[in-house]
Structure formats: C-alpha cells, structure tokens
C-alpha cells in the first residue's frame, strides 16, 4: 500500500513537473504562442504609468530541442504586464546571453549541427524581437564556444562581454530580473 501511495504521489508530481498548467492560466497574450501566465487580482498597486526596464540573464542552454526557460520568462513578463494594463511601449526587455546559453540563440544551421535538433527557440526570439526585445550575446562566451556573429539568429547583437552589457544597461536604468 505504501508503495502504491508513493507511486501515485510520484506520478502526480511528475505531471506537474511536465508542465501541466493550472486552471485559469493564459497560454499567451501580447507575445502570441508563448509566455503563459495567470491573471491576478492585485492588492499591491503599481501605477499603470510605470516604465519597466528589465534584463533577463540567460547563462545556461536548455536541453536540446527544448525552449529556454529564461527566454520564455521574458515573454511571460511582457504578457502578464500587458494583460494587467501596462502599455507595451513602457515595457523594455533585454535578454543578455552568455555561457552555454549562446547556443539557444544560434541560427538553425549552427543549432542543428551542434544538437541534431531544430532550434525551437528561434520563433520565440523572433516573436520577442518583433515586439522590441533586444538580445545581446557575450562576445567572450561566443569566442569560448567557437561562435561568430554569423552563427547567431539575425535578432542577436554581440557585445564585448555580458559584463559590459550588464554594466551599460544598469547605467541606463535597467534592473536585473532574478527569475
């Protein structure tokens, strides 16, 4: 009986870990097809005139063929705020990419050569870039992983380093999202 209970508990936990969405979760919003979120009745008021300047730090690649959770979080951030009444033009998002994360913003040829999978991140990167999200890759990490500018998606810009990008963005008033 204990084994059956443990097995059932593991099965339920596994379904949750596989991404079963809670009731009421929106599958997408302003960024079509990506960035699920839950509308929330707030009691901590934030002025709808607030301007967001947020950096997401992408340092680790997703498993081959999977969407990178950091890129998906950027879409979720935008979707939930637009849905809550914030103006899209006041939501400024940058994804700074370094480490093994560079592969996830690699072009199809590069990604498929390295992983033998299609880069499922490419449509999401394009959808975000089309809405104004910037993708900045660390030139130091790119060099370390043997990547050149031509290995990246066209939406990706290369900086001297991720440290440089973070320093400049912080001076411009961007905050680092820790999630």
Overall SS class: alpha/beta
Query: On the 0-100 scale, what is the average pLDDT?
Result: 89
Question: Which class in CATH terms?
Answer: Alpha Beta
CATH superfamily: DsrEFH-like
Number of structural domains: 1
Number of strands: 5
- Range of helix content: 25-40%
Word description of this protein:
By secondary structure, this protein is of the alpha/beta class. It has a single domain, classed as DsrEFH-like (Hypothetical Protein Ychn, Chain: A, 3-Layer(aba) Sandwich), CATH 3.40.1260. The chain is 36% helix and 15% strand. It has helices at 2-17, 69-83, 108-115, 121-130, 139-144, 162-171; strands at 52-58, 91-97, 134-138, 156-159, 175-177. A 5-stranded parallel beta sheet has the order 4-3-2-1-5, sandwiched between helices. Helix 5 links the parallel strand 3 and strand 4. Helix 2 (69-83) packs parallel to helix 4 (121-130). It starts with a helix and ends with a strand. The model is unreliable at 1-18 (pLDDT under 50).
């Amino acid at each position: 009986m204990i084994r059956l209970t443990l097995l059932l508990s593991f099965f339920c936990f596994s379904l949750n870990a596989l991404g079963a969405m809670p009731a009421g979760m929106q599958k997408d919003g302003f960024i079509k097809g990506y960035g699920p979120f839950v509308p929330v009745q707030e009691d901590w008021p934030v002025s709808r005139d607030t301007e967001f300047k947020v950096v997401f730090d992408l340092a680790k690649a997703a498993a081959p063929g999977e969407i990178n959770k950091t890129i998906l979080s950027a879409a979720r951030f935008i979707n939930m705020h637009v849905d809550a009444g914030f103006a899209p033009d006041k939501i400024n998002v940058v994804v700074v990419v370094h480490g093994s994360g560079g592969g996830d913003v690699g072009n199809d040829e590069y990604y498929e050569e390295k992983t033998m999978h299609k880069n499922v991140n490419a449509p999401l990167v394009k959808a975000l870039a089309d809405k104004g999200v910037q993708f900045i890759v660390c030139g130091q990490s790119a060099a370390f992983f043997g990547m050149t500018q031509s290995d990246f998606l066209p939406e990706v810009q290369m900086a001297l380093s991720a440290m440089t990008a973070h320093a400049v963005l912080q001076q411009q008033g961007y905050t680092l999202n820790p999630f």
